[in-house]
Amino acid sequence: MSASYKSPIEMLTQWADVQGDAVYLRQPVKGQFRDYSWRQVQQTMQRLAGALRHLGYQPGDKIALLSKNCAEWFITDLALMYGGYISVPIYPTANADTIRYVLEHSGSKAIFVGKLDHWAEQEAGVGGELLRLALPYDTMPAQYQWLQLLNMGLPLLEAPEPSAEQIMTLIYTSGSTGKPKGAVQTFGSYSWTCNAVVRDLKVNQQDRLLSYLPLAHITERVAMEGSSFYAGCPVAFVESLETFVVDVQRMQPTVFFSVPRLWTLFQKNIIDKVGSFKKLNLLLKIPLLSWLVKRKIHQGLGLSKSRLQGSGSAPIPPSLVQWYHSIGLDICEAWGMTENCAYSIINYPFDANKIGTVGKPIVGCSIKRSANGELLVKSPGLMKEYYKAPEATAAAFDEEGYFRTGDLCEIDKDGCVSITGRVKDNFKTAKGKYVAPVPIERKLAQDPHVELLCVIGSGLPHPVALVQLSEGATLQPREEVRASLKATLDAINPNLESHETVDAVIVVNDPWTIENDVLTPTLKIKRHVLEQRYTAKADGLRGARIVWEDEI
Question: Where does the signal peptide begin and end (predicted)?
Fold first, then answer.
């Protein structure tokens, strides 16, 4: 790590000195903003860190944080950094079993609990023996409340500056396969990546950020929280799902990141307001109307002041990026993982000719493609190791220190990377042939009736596609939807290898959610869960049929 390394604590001190009275964090409570200035954040951080010392916690102790995004999440995170504690963030949607596993595996000595939608179901995972510290929201019972903590003991006014090598956090992967692993990130790896984001995206004090994707995920922790530390810009939060649109419109963010699932929902809402794809496309072809319609859409989304839109965490259909491009919103797709602080490759500045790729590696990041087509990456943002998992750590790196991402890729002549699937997603059919499902899924996703889909086929004669319909499609006559899906499938199958052809499309009955264990907290599909649930049902379907689950 270079001599230019500065920890988030050093940056907070800098901004408190330079613009101490400026508003830093904006937390909506019952529709009204509760604002914290830079100086107030610094002082609250010192009081909270002092309370942890008063309670007997020592530097190096691991302390968990279970809450939806809020201003106090940032402040707690800063207090843990300042006090030399190792933070263990947990997804606010995690079930009791996952919470219990992370707390036990990490050896956390206390837990902060905050904004939670289902704390009563989650409380069993925390157990009664762990000290609970409550953020100022409706949450599970705790031994100490926020205001008690802030008035407990003396503020911690002198603390050693965290070194680049010091462990900052354990970030548990969302676990699309098996138990989550704890990626050990240092202050150095975090700082380097946050600085790279600020450098590349040119984030500065005039920008406005909105934090609503889970802070337990490294992407939000770097792109929003980290950017604010290193660029000195304000951050607002979303009060609830119900107030989301209003909160975005009130904050008017200048940089806005989302995930493919939400970009799809935004698109659906736009189409619903206009009436149909056909009507919108017609309006966009009329010059004066086109400008007015685009402006109205940007205003409706709250993105009329946004200079940069991003998407990450899962592949976004190229057709969706192209559609947003047609209405004047360019979505820069980025690629990263928990293990490399979520930022290594990006299509920025946005290049419409590179839609379908995730762009080029950022400055300081090296990539290569292994003999079996796997993407390997190396950067100062790489994790130190997987916590308590030396064998998994050793298997994750090659002899040159490149991280084995598990993603299959193609790299074009311009150095742009296309992710073509996951090494572990490829399955072998009953005929002994390997199938890569992701390219097939991308083709099927072009059908406008599809919201989510997953191609399975391990042990089956041919692959089968499982489809969750979009909300609009569920209101249409079944035969109309069947005809559209059949036309899509019949257009795709002739262009696939014989062993790849899709035997059937099964429209599932129940939506895929985090709660029923089909989606991870970052909305990735758990392929192995769907395989377990549907392989037996799919066996025997032939002839490129389109069937609903209740018809089998």
Answer: none
Tens digit of each residue's pLDDT (9 = 90 or more) over 423-446 = 888 887 877 778 889 889 988 988
Long-range CB pairs of 428-433, under 8 A, 24+ apart, other chains included: 428/458, 428/459, 429/457, 429/458, 429/459, 429/460, 429/461, 429/462, 429/463, 429/499, 430/459, 430/460, 430/461, 431/461, 431/499, 433/499
**Per-residue pLDDT, 3:** 58
Give the pLDDT confidence score for residue 1 in this predicted structure: 47
Q: Which residue has the tokens 């209003």?
A: 246
Which residues in the chain land under pLDDT 50?
1
- Kindly report the CATH number that applies to the domain delimited by 427-551: 3.30.300.30
Alpha helical stretches, state H, 175-334: 187-201, 218-220, 227-231, 244-251, 260-274, 277-284, 287-301, 318-326
**Tokens representing residue 99 in the block:** 């919470």
pLDDT of res. 433 = 78
Q: Cα Rg for the chain, rounded, in angstroms? A: 24
What is the reported pLDDT for 434?
81
CA atoms within 13 A on the CB side of 254: 13
Q: 471, 511 in Cβ contact below 8 A?
A: no
H/E element, 235? strand 235-237
DSSP annotation of 162: P
Side chain identity, residue 169: T
224-261 CB burial, b ≥16 within 10 A, e <16: bbbbbbbbbbbbbbbbeeeeeeebbeebbbbbbbbbbb
Spatial CB neighbours of 371, under 8 Å, sequence gap ≥ 6: none
CATH, domain range 8-233 = 3.40.50.980
Please report, for the chain, the start and end positions of each structural domain, with discontinuous segments joined by +: 8-233, 255-304+307-422, 427-551
Class at the top of the CATH hierarchy for domain 255-304+307-422: alpha beta
